[in-house]
Amino acid sequence: MSIWARTQKLPQDKLKHVSNLYEGSQIPIEVRHYFAEWIEEQPWGQIDENNPSQQDQMFAQQIVQKLIEELENRAMELPQQNQYFLLRLKFQDVANQFRTQYSQNPMELVQIFKRNLAMEETLLHQHENPDASPIEAPMPAFDKDKLIMAKIDGVGAKVNDSDKLVKELTQKQEVFTINYQKQLQINSQINQTQSERYLATLSPEEIQRVTEARKTLEKQKKDFETVLSKGAQTIISARLEIADTLSKNFDDLEEVRQLVVDQELIDWKRKQQLAGNGAPFNPSLLENLQKWVESTVDLVWRSRQQVLKLEGLCSRIPLQLPDGKEDVVSKLNNKITGILSSIVTSTFIVEHQPPQVLKRDSRFSARVRLLVGGRLTIHLTPPTVTASIISEAQAKLLLRGPNRHPDNCCGKILNNSGLMEFHQQKGELSIEFRNMILKSIKRAEKRGTEAVTEEKFCILFQSSFHLGMTVNELQFEVWTISLPVVVTVHGNQECNAVATVLWDNQFSEPGRMPFVVPEQVPWPELVKMLDVKFRSLTERGLTHENKQYLATKLFGGTIDDNFSSKMVSWSAFNRDPLPNRSHTFWEWFYQAMKLTKEHLRGPWKEGFINGFISKQDSQRLLEKCHLGTFLLRFSDNFIGGITIAWLAEDRNDSSSFCRKKQIWNLQPFSAKDFQILGLAERINDLPQLHFLYPDIPKQAAFARFMTQTTHHTATADGYVQHKIQMRCDTADMNGSPVASENPQTPQPGISDHDSPLMSPSNAVNSTTGDGTNYMDMDQYDLQELPGIGMDYTADNVFELNDINLSNFLVEAAMNFSNNVPSNLNGNISNMDSST
């Protein structure tokens, strides 16, 4: 359960405290409520607000900017009903306030959110654990660095204690050794005094003195035997105590290893993987990881030295353990060596991933790093790293166990080997492959309907080095693999290759076998992936209406339907074409995204492009607007195309007082069109267009995106400069453009009355019941059908059932051919009601 969901269940007095907390920090409680999930998903703990680095500042700036965008998008997405009016104003006001107050000082807003979230967690802990003391309250979940370092420091204190115990044992054994040597000397002296040959050389008086001396030596011997016996017992007790202490320390170190390696490092890799889909990713988190890893491995290495020293001490003075006591020193050695091995091998990582869509014969780069490389003297003899490309089957074999490295790679990579370098200032041991080139690839046999762009490979990085005083003490063979890559040989394969990569990055599960992914996924998860990818490339994500429209492309229905429980299969996503289309859902979405990234980023970022909206919904929006109002939407049929729909008068309407309205759709523009003339220039050139939906003057919206124009002056060589201008003549069409003399005022003669009765022969130019004609020009190419027609709708007086379809089609064709204008200019095509 989220923090906010739990907070809402707090008693009234604590809820009041939370409300005052946010109001006092000038963050309305509505923001905390309606953006709870977004707020709690942000990586606040990755930003050090007390001593921020340049990366921290940049990351804070990104978070503030994204929050402002979220507020503005939510304000736009709220329904137009009166009950949402105040909330819509609130979100817009807060967005403006945050832009003014925190754009130049984003760290201040970060501090506020971190403080407020920490207080929420404290209140929750007090409420959910009433018997707990205040000291037991948990540290904030986002403050991981302090939490982990505190845990490491706690284990470090125990390792220091065991260091003292080992030193004390060393001193005890040294005293024991000295006493043992003295006892040996006494025994030797006693033996000498008992020697007959020695006594034969002495006088009676001397023998008497030797006898007395022997008695003294015998007493000293007994005393030393007692001392040695007690010393042996002390040493045995100390050894057992040290072994028990080390065993507990190793358990604590294993917990730290699991926290740092199995949780935080895996979490970092997951974030790196999602970053491949465009999700936010803070590279500086790796510096924290290296700090944690180095601190942990230092303690592990010291603990291993303690074990080795204990082993040496035990071998120097072999003592019999009491009954029931087991010699665990060798087991301790194996345990701590296993922990060390796990840390060393797990922290050999791909810091910068290679491109996940690899084109053969193209140059690519990657960066590999050993997080423990600055410690353990590895950097003194930098190891060599080699890169090779392996298949999915070979990757599976690799993960099944040691000594299962693939015998042969499935391709050839140039410039794939080099020595790791130690960067003294950063304390990093890494290697950057800057100029790798994939020269060849060997593909597996095709499986069923799988395309070549669905086949996954990966880059395998391998190295070896040793630790310890001797070469043979600890020998490590380390390896790591990149994220899955798809190999292409032609640019037209990129679209489908990206789909494979996106699906794998988003839906792969932790600990999977390479590179298994689910065959179908929930729609909310898929649309979240599409939103993140679109935002990363265009700087603005998808609105709620956009997402609903995308759902209708896959599932049918209307944008008001609930699609949250729907599942989307890989086949529906990018294998099977959409109904009545020759392209897949992903191919259509990808081309729209590509067009926006390359040619429409500015207007899209500002929210001036509706984009993902159906023709019917665009008509519904426009029919209630001023004449000359237009919007931009991606074409349903023409992938990678965007069309303009606008509202105009119907010139053919003979009414002098209240002419009907009609909506026209311009033939879609493609990337090639925008390479000739940009969108802003095209809109500026069309006098029919006045207001961007709902009521923004087109100059106010698009003037900033126009390229710098020059005056038509003679150049140095005498030529006069020229420019390309777009024209769309609609004067001879079945309708007319809006009058441009006074575009700020709606035309007075327009009313939404029912259309008059019409004969079946004229039904091809019929109108809907609201007096609006729908003219569509994004279905056919201009060269194929150089004219314009009118959609027929069933809202007319003559229903479809009352019309002879054959007569209707013949008469429509004749009307169409007779009305083709001879001076048609611009990109206008016939409209089809099925578009």
- N-to-C span: 44 Å
Report the sheet-strand fraction.
5-15%
Low-confidence stretches are 133-141, 735-835
The average pLDDT value, as a whole number, equals: 82
In total, the number of domains comes to 4
Largest sheet: 6 strands, mixed
In total, how many beta strands? 19
- CATH fold category name of the largest domain: SHC Adaptor Protein
Q: Which superfamily, in CATH terms, is the homologous superfamily of the largest domain?
A: SH2 domain
Principal-axes shape call = elongated
Estimated radius of gyration = 39 Å
The helical percent reads 40-55%
GO molecular function, one term: DNA-binding transcription activator activity, RNA polymerase II-specific
GO biological process, one term: cell surface receptor signaling pathway
Organism: Crassostrea virginica (Eastern oyster)
Biased composition (Polar residues): 737-748, 758-771
Topology (SSEs and partners):
Blueprint: H1 3-7, H2 12-24, H3 29-34, H4 36-41, H5 54-77, H6 85-102, H7 106-128, H8 144-193, H9 196-200, H10 204-275, H11 285-316, H12 329-346, E1 348-352, E2 357-359, E3 363-370, E4 384-391, H13 392-399, E5 411-414, E6 417-419, E7 421-423, E8 428-441, E9 457-467, E10 474-481, E11 486-488, H14 494-507, E12 520-522, H15 523-538, H16 544-555, E13 567-569, H17 570-574, H18 585-599, H19 601-605, H20 615-622, E14 629-634, E15 642-649, E16 661-665, H21 671-676, H22 679-685, E17 691-692, E18 696-697, H23 698-702, E19 772-776, H24 805-818
Parallel strand pairs: 2-11, 14-17, 16-19
Antiparallel strand pairs: 1-3, 3-8, 4-6, 4-9, 5-8, 7-8, 9-10, 12-13, 14-15, 15-16, 17-18
Helix pairs in contact: 2-7, 5-6, 5-7, 8-10, 8-11, 10-11, 10-12, 11-12
